[in-house]
Amino acid sequence: MSEKDQMEVNEAQIAVHWQEEDYYYPSEEFKAQANVNDKSIYDRFSLDNFPECFNEYADLLTWDEKWHTTLDTSDAPLWKWYVGGKLNVSYNCIDRHLAKNKNKTAIHFVPDSEDEPIQHITYQELYTRVNEVAAVFRDFCGLKAGDRATIHLPMTAELPITMLALARLGVIHSVVFGGFSPSACADRAEDSKSRVLITIDGYYRGGKWIDHKANADEAYEISKKEGHTIEKVLVWQRHPEKYSSSSPLVDGRDYSMNEVLKGYKRVKVDPVSMPAEAPLFLMYTSGTTGKPKGCQHSTGGYLAYAAGTSKYIQDIHPEDVYWCMADIGWITGHSYIVYGPLSICASSVVYEGVPNYPDAGRCWRIAEELDINIFHTAPTVIRALRKIGPDEPAKYNYNFKHMTTVGEPIEPAVWKWYHEVIGKGKAVIVDTWWQTETGGFLCTTLPGISPMKPGSAGPGAPGIHPIVLDEDGNEIMPGEGKAGNICIKNPWPGGFQTVYGNRERYIDAYYGQYCKDRNSKDWRDWPYLAGDAAVVAADGYFRILGRIDDVINVSGHRLGTKEIESAAMNCEEVAEAAVVPVAHEIKGKEPDLYISLKPGIEATDELAAKISLRVCDDIGKIARPRKVWLVPDMPKTRSGKIMRRVLGAISNKGDVGNIMTLANPEIVAEIKKMVEGE
Ligand code: WTA
Q1: Measured in angstroms, how far is the CA atom of residue 582 from the centroid of ligand 1?
Q2: Which ligand 1 atom is the nearest neighbour of the CA of 432?
Q3: I need a surface site. Which of 106, 225, 261, 336 has the fewest CB within 10 A?
Q4: What is the average pLDDT across 152-162?
Q5: Residue (of 662, 630, 631) closest to 646 by Cα position
Q6: Do 435 and 335 contact (CB within 8 A), yes or no?
């Protein structure tokens, strides 16, 4: 049996062994107030009405010029939505709300420390600040529509303000997760050829001051070595009145944003009217091969999809207070902290800190104080909260009507705890399955009309038509109990446009497997391959089983195994590296790193620590291996491929299966002994 066959059998077995869960229903009270409480929405968004059905989402926005073509497939599979239309994202997220809602809070910024007051930034204040920052980008940095800028900021209000200011000018932003290393930041700045890097002196997390500015210095140097020069580094000050980093500002390159802004008080910048298909941002994501892919998202299609799904699936109303506890450095934060909620004039919470600081009650105190009623987080956080403070939520008087889970499959037991304890048995849950590439939700229930099923992401979102295919492209029917590759039959406005600067990679990775005619201009010939394994139940609900490729999902964040392995290989002592995911109670998966050393190098604890550090330095702490195993050799096929499946089974204390086809079967027992002895 080939490695691939073996994997498929395993996935299928998982599916068969899983029991169907009971339905949970939304309350009458919830249904009555929901933005969608009529099942006819699925007819409106049926394939018969495609693509015009998606005009309903575009109509939620304010356009400078209306589109003439809803979907242009002439350059398939690089789809163009709302062609002919023009709009500005910052105008849609701010200016258009001023007439009626200027005094409404746009962003509640909750600092890490409970001693520091929460900032309630109104739409009017956001307008003023975004204009001033846009003026700095335009007049001080010379940025204009189509240029790229890299942002390496943590969760402070300055992050959405910076994004919106760039969007006001039509400058394409690329946000790098604040916890990522200088080299990750440099790679992204280099790939996007960003002339400007925006960072901050430091920030707080879990009670600690994190000095952040030095990361920019290093990123600058690394990027320079890669042949790309960052011209200006703009540094926000966490405490506006003083510069707080121990790394000084470099003359002629680094500028304190807060100082520069003093010269742009009350300056207004006209929003630049952008074509719907102009790129709004890049978001880099890990794939199977080494280099992260810059997913390029559009202006009109992306914003329409973020707005529509925020209204219909997040069910946000004008009076709601909405808290998505993701990081804006990931796609969830882009779509469902910043662009979706602000485009429909919501009040959105930006929290600097961590869920368990100073104690397990922190989230619930924030929820109580701000009277949050819509809550959005990931299974990894739910598991952690369940572990550290299972009874905490009951001590606080907050009321969620709606809760979201996103990022990885949620175990039914964890779902039920989320529902009963955090949701106090009342809140509806939407389990939203989607990806960086997809801009917004793909599978989810509609909170006001669909029953929920723990562990299942539900049917396709309105206008999204998923299908499960086997390796040969045959459809696996609902209720068959067999796992396959989940695909989306049709394009949708939120889908990314391409991999930045790499059209071939976009086509190969997402359409290569199932497109039968690469010259076709008919979207029906281009099913989108998500790269996840899934089973579809008889009721049409999809259960996602995880990645079919070798990406490791740690705490809801995707890490490429190749990226981790190549970081380890940067240690000169390392001969081979193989990373496998290990199940972890809280994080979902953790990377276990197997290393074989070059001949003559001694395996020591110091060396293992050095390799681990190297991975953290190159990628970020999030990639820290659970354990670095220095093994005498890797289990390999006869053609020399490392058998990650075998290593994975050892790490997860599972059955290694048939190993007799290996070139060196004897090594398996040796590695097993080593890992089990630990
Ligand atoms: C996984 C995050 C099960 C999936 C929005 C997907 C999920 C990858 C779910 C994308 C969910 C995300 N249930 N699995 N509700 N949501 N995933 O790009 O494997 O960071 O392909 O986007 O996370 O991760 P990404």
Answers
A1: 17
A2: 15
A3: 225
A4: 98
A5: 662
A6: no
